[in-house]
Design brief:
3 copies of one chain form a homotrimer. Chain A is α/β, with parallel strands linked by helices and 351 residues long. Chain A contains 5 helices and 40 strands. Helix content of chain A is 17%, strand content 29%.
């Protein structure tokens, strides 16, 4: 693939500094770019060392100004250089669209409805009463249980399990190894034994959601576990029964969210964090990495720590933790000094 | 499905207040119940706002008394309302029993023994010398290695891997994505490299155990990794080689238990906790969520924290953590005040 | 299998004390050994109670001396008793080598190259342009995407997913449920929505690496996610896009390493730890269990804690944590004592 800087600029609505007829043959990161690549410099960490990339063209912020223009490469100015760059990537690395078709090695139950241009790989097992929309791509070894609904343009990667009645929206991606709709962890104590609750609910995942690899998303016990539109989960995320996650929320790797908790919209739960059950986490919240959230968090808060607290407080606590041994020494020493002062002071009072 | 309150009361041994001929058509949670549903109120959080449910019948504790009877709905009194309610759920949401039979797309090795009424789904692979009991249900894409034994009434969900010689008791459920019997993490350092130990042990899982989705339970290095009867693990639990877990213990999501640790009976390990290797955790222990257990814990203890400590102590520590910045300020200020006092006191002594 | 002590000693280069014609029929752990087994005692914990094993032969360190020789069993002295013992295990528990052959139930794309003595199990799906070396063993339900390369003697256990262009070195083992080469968690914010980045990179895994069960190793966004030679990961490890891990590093269960972080050689990341993105962790580093590493760590450091600090400091901090309630009480009491001293001292100054 070869494009001129002008052709690229047209695609990403960029203003060009330098020769627009320059040929570009690849996309690469700032430090790995070769002499006919395009790259991007989205922030000062890269903008301050623009002369260090070997790229032939660099996408920079629209308001970026240089005192002396670079002659070695073109600048392409856009509102969001990172986004613009990643719009170019598929041009140079075109993804081969799957050839629609149903593998003769896929197994179907009764009463399934398939849309147009569907691709179903070998060794897929689809049970009864499943509805699959147009342009859906189901890769090998996927299991789709009874009554599942999968809307248009959704992609299910290999080795995914969708248990009964799971609904996936349109343009959803589910990565390999994920299990959606398994029974929640619900038991009722009966003497020594744990009596298993029936789990008759299901999981609904909104449009444009992306579910990482090896996630586990349990069905509602009676009702619904709901993942909003545009939610993106990283790998190894656990979402328990009856959880609800609002639109466009990000859930980073190895997070666990316990049963019946509600998470708002546009919220970020950073990696390794744990959120207890039956809480309400608001909209636009940020939960820092490796945090333990044990009570509800209102909208627009930034929290972190184990247990969670305002992020600014946690930064101070973190700063003190390693000084605790010193503080303890100081405290013990002060206690002695105080005692000796008390002895001095109190002596004269004794007649 | 439609049942009268009387018919329901007979099934769950309930005493009825209100009209026993009332018709019930569904089960639902307290807040989502509709006008012909039955629900339950197991504790004061719900009992105190009984008038807020739209349900036609509510299961309540046997000793619950109301001053003025509700005319809008029936009360059904039982010893354990939650349990009683979940006994009703399958009546209104009957689970379709699998039709016994062996898929022609399942693959068998040599010398396997199958019980009666077994259901084996498509694309199951069963190796040599496997014994499968009566009424076992193996769902699609399951792999069962050489020499495995699976007892009566056990259900293995899709995409489960059982490595060689794994034994599952009767009435066991293994959820999707779980891997049981893989090699433990055992190496011996030899200069710079890590020499892999042979893992010749296996995993034994007791009757009525339930293993969550995406669990990893490693085989014993030489001996056995043992999961007791009635143990329930949540999703993404990791259990290392040679661990032993006592009967009816609960292991909540994303817990990790390191090699050769013994956990007692009726114990609860709450979510995200980690337990170091070669420890003994007693019977009836509770390990709080997100705890790091680094030494053995005797019977009947409640511990939490990183590292673990008595739960009551941890609650106090947690309460202080966010006040550490203030404590440090106080300490530094006191030190100055102490110094100035010392200066005042010591001056007069200088002649 | 039956071997004499002399035959065993020859295999592991041991010096024998006792009757070299003694017959040994099995290998076992120190406490479970029977009267014709061999076991090992690698450290003083076992050497100090040698009389308690029922084994017929015990491998001990070369420099181990006993005042009075044991008549009941032979001693075999080697440089590394644990390693020597585990060299014997496969003699007594021979692993059945797979019978090479391609299952007729495996599915191949176009243009794949297979080496000699390859074993491909049933229900394996291999896409286009895949290269598989000699003596490779691919177990059932494995998915191998377009362009993957798998070198000689590598074993892929059931239900593994290798996405496009993943390269596995020789003598690699990948355990069940692992997903290698899925898209990283990369989005660029665009107003409310998260625009998905193309992930055109891939994963390269070195020779003799072993990947545990249910790992997730994401492809590079543009470049490579690299796992060095001899790296061993435990179960449920998450390795994000563009991470690089040096040779012979150990990554224990449930660890998460965020994007673009570099980990050195011969380093150990203990269980449940989290490492933030874009960091450099040096060679020969040890990160303690359940630690949160939030900044780079130079070579040869031992760190632990949340957040990480020098391990020795963390041990002191840990020791103080449970005493914080006491410290706070002392502090508040001292403040009162200080105030009353101040009152006494300052009073006389007031005329």
């Amino acid at each position: 693939m070869k494009l001129t800087v002008k052709e690229i600029a047209d695609k990403i609505c960029a203003r060009v500094t330098g020769d627009p007829s320059t040929s570009i043959t690849g996309v690469s990161s700032f430090d790995h770019a070769g002499p006919s690549d395009i790259t991007f410099a989205g922030n000062t960490a890269f903008l301050s060392r623009l002369d260090q990339t070997r790229a032939k063209a660099v996408i920079v912020p629209r308001d970026f100004e240089v005192a002396v223009p670079f002659s070695r490469f073109c600048l392409l100015k856009t509102d969001n250089p990172r986004r613009s760059f990643f719009e170019l990537v598929p041009l140079f690395h075109p993804v081969t669209a799957p050839v629609p078709g149903i593998s003769p090695l896929a197994v179907f139950g009764k009463n399934c409805a398939l849309g147009e241009n569907v691709t179903i790989g070998p060794h897929v097992v689809i049970e009864n009463d499943v509805v699959i929309g147009d342009h859906v791509h189901v890769m090998p070894h996927v299991f789709i249980g009874n009554g599942c609904v999968i809307k248009d343009h959704t992609v299910i990667k290999p080795n995914v399990t969708l248990m009964d009645n799971t609904c996936l929206g349109s343009y959803v991606i589910v990565h390999s190894g994920s299990v959606i709709g398994s029974d929640g962890y619900g038991f009722v104590q009966d003497g020594d034994i744990h009596f298993k609750l029936s789990h008759t609910g299901h999981v609904i995942i909104g449009d444009h959601a992306e579910i990482g690899a090896c996630n586990t998303i349990d069905r509602g016990t009676l009702g619904v576990t709901r993942i909003g539109n545009g939610v993106k989960t990283d790998n190894q995320v656990h979402i328990a029964h009856n959880v609800s996650i609002g639109d466009n929320t990000l859930v980073v790797a190895q997070v666990g969210i316990a049963g019946s908790t509600t998470v708002g919209r546009q919220t970020i739960i950073a990696g390794k964090s744990a959120i207890s059950g039956h809480l309400t986490i608001g909209d636009n919240v940020i939960v820092g990495p490796f945090s333990g959230v044990s009570s509800s968090v209102p909208d627009n808060q930034i929290v972190s720590g184990i247990p969670h607290m305002p992020h600014k407080t946690w930064l101070k606590v973190v700063n003190i933790l390693s000084r605790l041994p010193g503080m303890r020494k100081t405290l013990l020493a002060m206690e002695k000094r105080l005692e000796s002062l008390e002895r001095v002071i109190q002596k004269p009072e004794q007649p």
